[in-house]
Structures are given as C-alpha cells and as structure tokens.
Design brief:
two-stranded antiparallel ribbon, two-stranded antiparallel sheet, globular
C-alpha cells in the first residue's frame, strides 16, 4: 500500500510538472518569447505564461484521453494496469522551443494472452484521443483571428502587409533581421569610428558577419488539416500560413495530437497500430506487414542522409571522413534491424542493402526523405520491437471490431505527415 501511494505521488508530481512545462512551451510558440538568455523585448511575461494554458489544457486533455482510453479498457478486461506516467520535457533553457512533454504512458503489469484484449486496449487510446482532437481542431478553425494578428507577434511583417509570406521567408530578410539585432546589441557600446572619422552607425559595423544560412522551422499540415481548410473554412484569408500556425494554440495542440496519434498508429510491432493489424490480419500476416512497413519507413527516413556531394572532397582527409560517416550510418542501420533479425550477419546484410538502395535512389532521382524519422526508427527497431508478441487466445475479431480497426487505419492516414517538422536553411 505504501509503495502504491508513493507511485501515485510520483504520477501526480509528474502531471503537475508537465502542466507547467507545456504551458511554458505553449507560450514560447505563441509569442516567440522565452524565460532566459534573451533581451527585454523577448522575455516571457506573466500574462504570456497564462496565455500558454490555451495550448497546454487542450493538448494535455487530448493526451490524457488517449492514455485513459487504454487505462479504462484494460480495467474493463481485468488487466492490471497503472495510471498514466506523464513525461515533462522543456528545452527553453537552450532557447529551443519544445512541446513541454514527451507524452505519457501506462504500464501493463499482466501478460496479455488474447488478441481481442490486445486489440481493444491498443485501439481505445488513439480513438479516444482523436475524438477530442477533432473537437479542439474544430474550435481552432471556427475561432480564427483576423490575419493582422500576426503583426502583434511579428511587427516586422507589417511593412509588407498581408503578402508578408512572399518577403519574410528569405535569406535577405533573415540577414537584415540579424543585422538589426546586432545593432541593438551594440547600442550600449561606446561609439566606434571608421578610418574616415565617421560614426559606425553611418557606415555599418565592419565586424558584423552574416550567417551562411538562417534556419527556419515550421510544422507541415496533415491531410485532415488540408481537408478542413479546403472544404470547411469559409473565410480563407483567416487560415494561418503554414509557417505561422504555431502561434495558434488550439491548432498547434491539434496538430501535435495528430502527430502523436499517427506515431502510435504506425502499423508496426507493439505500437497501437501494430495491435490493430495483429487483430485484423492475424499473427503471420501481421509479421509480414510489420517487416515491409518498417523497411519502407527506414528507407524513407534515410533518403538524403547519403549524398553524393559528400564525396566531392577527394583529399585523404575528405575520403577518411566519408568512410567514417559511411560506417557509422551502416552501424546505425544495423541497430535499427536488431529486432528484425536474430543473426548478426542478416542485420549487416540489411544495412548494406538499405544503404545501397538509399544511395542509388537519392542519387538517380534526387528524392529526399525525412531524417527526423531515423530517431523513431531506432527506438522501434532496437527497443520497442517490430514484431507483435504471440498470444494463446487468437480468436478472430467480430465485424464491429474489424470496422473499428479499418477506421483506425484511416485515422492514421489522415493524421500522418511525411515531414511533420520542416527545417529549412
């Protein structure tokens, strides 16, 4: 009893910390302001923090409904399960906007021996979270602010009017903003004179060095968002630009909810989507589907990692660096295949074939994937596993459950974005 109470206190503490971290994260995205290491104009105020609840409340509501969907279904089937453990994560101390959390999980203490139980518990979370996400997204799109609201966050956009998107996402504009920030930082310095005796403000600072590129990160919209914007939003002028959608807390909460829903519904192994295909297609077919989809997933993720331009440096040092990168990436692919093949030789064969195929397709057709998926690929292949555990009771699903399973796969398709977080330079 004492141990159980201690666990619940830990769960409550994690939840409370997650509320704080997601609220801070929401404020960062909404206002482009931070708590530390920024000038006075970009310091987060108390009101800015309170505005962050517009993100944290709907986001955690969706996340909680997902986890409690698993929890209550497990309890219904008399499977011993814990309450959710929330995972707070805030990166504001390095000036990197985060989501405030890495999600949440429940721990199943019993061994599940029934296909039906796996299916019900697995599908309940994504369906419950998706229903609430639809409500949040609908509210966000039905309460869109006037397009001029963006000037409150980015006053530098106002000079271009509502056509700002044609001007501000360029290298020249980013360089100008960088230079103006540099000038602002030099205001407190003593006046510097050029060789001609003119104040530095009249001729510019010779020590200003623009960056070779300026990173720009934004969220791409999945099919569901595109459908809503195309067919359900009457005033198209209010639809936020794709690169500014993070400033709308409800749409950001819905967007991230769909991202996590799609991750969970990937039809691979022991993910919720893996439980769905295991129930729909049986153990043998589910294993084959997991193998194929995981291979495609890794292949797409790695496209662009191997680039022929890496071989342009033909010096000894350049060739050595290329070979080191090649071996390191092959070792990474070997780790991704850890749960797919028991034999080490098979894993290295998988890595070599994958590398050759990625290199060939990228070189011949210039097709690039999304390198961000590689992190999830190694988590799947090395730690979670791509094969579903066996069960003793493998009875087929009822028609109603089969329909729900197909619905879950449709939800995966309309929630999935091939490049969810785009980083441009």
């Amino acid at each position: 009893m004492l141990k159980e109470n201690k666990t619940r206190l830990i769960q409550l503490a994690l939840f409370l910390v997650t509320i704080i971290t997601t609220t801070i994260a929401g404020s960062e995205w909404m206002h482009s302001k931070y708590l530390f290491f920024v000038d006075e104009a970009h310091i987060m105020s108390w009101n800015d923090f309170l505005n962050g609840f517009q993100f944290s409340i709907p986001f955690l509501l969706i996340l909680s409904c997902h986890e409690f969907g698993h929890y209550f279904t497990a309890r219904y089937h008399k499977v011993d399960v814990t309450l959710p453990f929330y995972i707070p994560l805030w990166l504001g101390f390095i000036l990197s906007p985060s989501f405030g959390t890495m999600g949440a999980f429940i721990r199943i203490k019993d061994r599940i021996s029934s296909t039906l139980h796996y299916f019900d518990i697995g599908i309940a979370g994504p369906l419950a979270g998706f229903v609430v996400a639809i409500g949040v997204i609908a509210y966000g799109y039905s309460h869109l602010p006037n397009p001029e609201y963006i000037y409150e966050i980015h006053p530098e956009y106002e000079q271009f009017g509502l056509d700002y998107a044609d001007h501000v996402y360029t290298y020249e504009f980013s360089k100008q903003q960088h230079y103006e920030s540099y000038l602002e930082s030099r205001k407190s310095d003593s006046v510097v004179f050029s060789a001609e005796g003119k104040p530095a403000a009249e001729w510019g600072y010779p020590d200003f060095e623009p960056m070779e590129s300026y990173p720009n990160m934004y969220f791409s919209k999945p099919l569901l968002f595109q459908f809503v914007e195309t067919y359900l939003v009457s005033d198209k002028s209010r639809i936020p630009n794709e690169q500014e959608i993070m400033h709308n807390p409800y749409l950001l909460a819905g967007l991230l909810a769909l991202f996590f829903t799609a991750l969970n519904l990937l039809p691979i192994g022991q993910l919720d989507g893996g439980h769905v295909i295991f129930g729909l297609f049986g153990a043998k077919r589910a294993k084959k589907i997991s193998q194929i989809l995981f291979t495609v997933f890794v292949f797409y993720a790695g496209l662009g990692i191997v680039d022929v331009s890496l071989m342009e440096d033909t010096t000894a040092g350049g060739l050595a660096s290329f070979l080191i990168l090649l071996v390191a990436y092959m070792y990474f692919l070997n780790l991704c295949a850890f749960s797919m093949f028991e034999n080490r030789k098979d894993r290295w064969t998988f890595a070599a074939v994958m590398l050759a195929a990625q290199f060939g397709v990228h070189t011949l057709f210039g097709i690039s994937g999304y390198e961000g998926w590689l992190l999830f690929a190694i988590v799947l292949g090395r730690f979670i596993g791509i094969y579903h555990p066996p069960v003793r009771d493998d009875q087929p699903l009822s028609l109603s459950r089969q329909i729900l399973g197909i619905l879950a796969l449709i939800i995966f398709i309309i929630s999935f974005s091939p490049k969810p977080f785009v980083m441009e330079f």
